[in-house]
Write a structure and sequence with these properties.
alpha/beta; binds flavin-adenine dinucleotide; FAD/NAD-bd_sf; FAD-bd; FAD-dependent oxidoreductase; FAD_aromatic-hydroxylase
Amino acid sequence: MKVVVCGAGIAGLAVAWWLGRDGHDVLLVERAPGRHGAGYMLDCQGPGYDAVARMGLQPLLQERAVSLSELVYHDEDGGVRERFTDEGPAGDRMVSVMRGDLEDVLHDVLAPGTEVRFRSGVEAFTDHGDGVAVTLTDGSVERADLLVGADGIHSRVRALAFGAEDRFLRDLGFHTAAYVFDDEQTARGLGDALHMMDAPGLQAGAYPVGAHRVATLFSHRVPAGTPLPGDPRAELRRVYGTTGWIVPHLLDRCPGPAEVYYDRVAQIELPTWSRGRVTLVGDACQAMSLLSGQGAGMALAGAEALAAELRRGGGDIAEALRGYEERLKPVVLQRQEEARGMAEEFVPALAP
Ligand SMILES: Cc1cc2nc3c(=O)[nH]c(=O)nc-3n(C[C@H](O)[C@H](O)[C@H](O)COP(=O)(O)OP(=O)(O)OC[C@H]3O[C@@H](n4cnc5c(N)ncnc54)[C@H](O)[C@@H]3O)c2cc1C
């Protein structure tokens, strides 16, 4: 079977790995010019960890694991408000890694014949019933048995197959940002702890990534539907510019827009995940938001479920896609609901 997968993030790489292993001919197209940078720390746990284990990737992930032994809450003036010590190893069913490291591991284990084409994406497709003609952004056309949209929460494939994003996106009322910068002195000062500071309507955090780098995380309340800013760095300065602790230093080290992750905190709710010979996997169909701490894990689980159902379907694609959705959707809906339940507590309320 020939499969075009759009998006070489966690879901797309995992789908490509499973399908390549099953002997399918996979073309992975990715909009970015190359592999992504570090991104942010992900806890890979539960079904996601189990999927990683079945892929045999734990040793590779353990080598790159981010290990933090404390969570320290600061007041705005920098004083320590609360400290939580990790009571011991997180257990053998969880590993924390930087998103870029997880993607690197997935890239490195792809089947030899799998083609990854950067600076490429899906422009359009025509479903002929017995196959799908996929027009790529360079104008070339790939004929495939299946098109998989693994292109994240703002999925282009979903928009082409199902319609505009605003019909499916549930905005939880926060914007969030993350970036990494080199700074040995600050990394040393952070010890091996995740540090958080909160104030009405916002929170900022920092943690060391190895001995030389610092990762940041910012989240703040916004009215649902607030458009994303054109310049994330300027927006972070506007929102966090007057806060204390080490936030001014973190803002000074903010890189250019290409290296800053900035997005709304949102979920995707779709009545169905597949249409004809097109299906979705990962955040494109099941985004649960960072509040769940399970999006990447469930993207891995989804990739495995899709491949397993295609294997089981023995060529009956419609049946396989039905089975994939039936298998995973109940878990996704439950995780999404749990995440929404955490929204009120996530960031302190705005001052009245
Ligand atoms: C700050 C933060 C912390 C998080 N913490 C956790 C956690 O602890 N545990 C956890 O499990 N999850 C966590 N998540 C969620 C997790 O990151 C996502 O659920 C996961 O990345 C989804 O993977 P994906 O491959 O579906 O989508 P993405 O990671 O968004 O990847 C999509 C890929 O498609 C590419 N793409 C996009 N559009 C196109 C296009 N038009 N054409 C071609 N390519 C395209 C993108 O460049 C990207 O490579 C967190 C998220 C955030 C923001």
